[in-house]
Amino acid sequence: DWTTGNVIDEQVARIKAQIGDAKVICALSGGVDSAVAAALVQRAVGDQLTCVFVDHGLLRQGEAEQVEQEYVATTGVKLKVVDASTRFLTALAGVSDPETKRKIIGREFIRVFEDAAREVVEEAHESDGGDVKFLVQGTLYPDVVESGGGTGTANIKSHHNVGGLPDDLQFELVEPLRTLFKDEVRAVGSQLGLPDEIVQRQPFPGPGLAIRIVGEVTKDRLETLRQADAIVRAELSAAGLDREIWQCPVVLLADVRSVGVQGDGRTYGHPIVLRPVSSEDAMTADWTRVPYELLAKISTRITNEVAEVNRVVLDVTSKPPGTIEWE
Ligand code: XMP
Questions:
Q1: Is the predicted ipTM greater than 0.95, yes or no?
Q2: Is any atom of ligand 1 closer than 6 Å to the C-beta of 208?
Q3: Which of 63, 124, 310, 321 could anchor a disulfide with 59, C-beta 3.0 to 4.6 Å?
Q4: Is the CB–ligand 1 distance for residue 318 below 6 Å?
């Protein structure tokens, strides 16, 4: 019968049987799936696992620290952090087109991960001659069904922004979440003691804040958006709306300016868009009727606390015709 404890025991046994005494690598994204998959593998084979966290600098406030500090502290995972934020910003310089942003981020991600994976392979060789044979992926049951059910060799779904690895760097996949739905993955994560901020995290796109800045991505704009987003998340959580809201993209219209008045003077700043949506599966969605008082509080806080932002607007479009994200 299905209990979280049984699922963990069963998966740990399977992982041990599959991996034996080989080495294994996993890319952490900051999301639930990779975090839970890696924690299961860690429990099964301990330090045979090395995790790689590519920090592309496009995560929200506190998220990189959650992976680098809290996640490591609670799981004991061996983590290699690559700070690639400058590289991503350079690659994104001058780019406004959404699909081009996605392509650049996917391309840079796989290059950085590839370099890190090669280092892990070399380090394993030098230490005790062991081979890195496996790659962990957080594939869920719905992904398996969607892609026709086959077991793959390493070719991470393009949807998840990791593209393919070169031929000389191929691994056999370890997919401990293949039989699970999202809520089951969260239950397993909680049982394994992972931080709530990771386990209960709402969906967040792989390309991160880059596709929530309409216009070119710059360091300053990322900082502005991060501040606004942190306020929105804090207020929605404090109001107890985390379950009702599927996700709430916060978007900076960096290419738009409007006139405002703050203190003694006129301002010419950027709007922030709030996009709270309710959904079952992200295929369709409706805009969430967030209470007016809460919207007012969020608006006041953002315009008071975030420089450059002088207007807050609410997106009241369902999906379809709107998508959840603006880009
Ligand atoms: P849309 O905007 O198409 O989004 O209604 C549907 C769901 O997918 C997420 N999303 C992405 N996730 N890489 C991802 O990993 C992406 O490029 C991407 N684009 C959208 C979005 O946040 C929503 O949950």
A1: yes
A2: no
A3: 63
A4: no
Say if ligand 1 is within 6 A of residue 323 CB: yes
Q: What is the mean pLDDT of residues 246-274?
A: 96
Q: Is 229 exposed, middle or buried (0-12, 13-18, 19+ CB in 10 A)?
A: buried
Q: DSSP strand E in the chain: where?
A: 23-28, 49-55, 78-83, 132-136, 172-174, 250-252, 258-262, 265-274, 277-278, 286-287, 309-314
Structural domains in the chain, CATH included, are 4-199 (3.40.50.620), 213-314 (3.30.300.10)
CB-based contact 283:320 (threshold 8 Å): no
The mean pLDDT value of the chain amounts to 93
Report the alpha-carbon distance of residue 300 to residue 281 in Å, rounded: 32
Question: Which of 97, 323, 324 for a ligand 1 pocket mutation test, highest count of atoms within 8 Å of Cβ?
Answer: 324
Q: Is the CB of residue 245 below 6 angstroms from any atom belonging to ligand 1?
A: no
User: pTM (2 decimals)?
Assistant: 0.92
Distance 54 CA to ligand 1 centre (A): 19
Distance CA 110, CA 90 (A): 16
pLDDT of residue 149: 62
Say if residue 7's pLDDT is above 50. yes
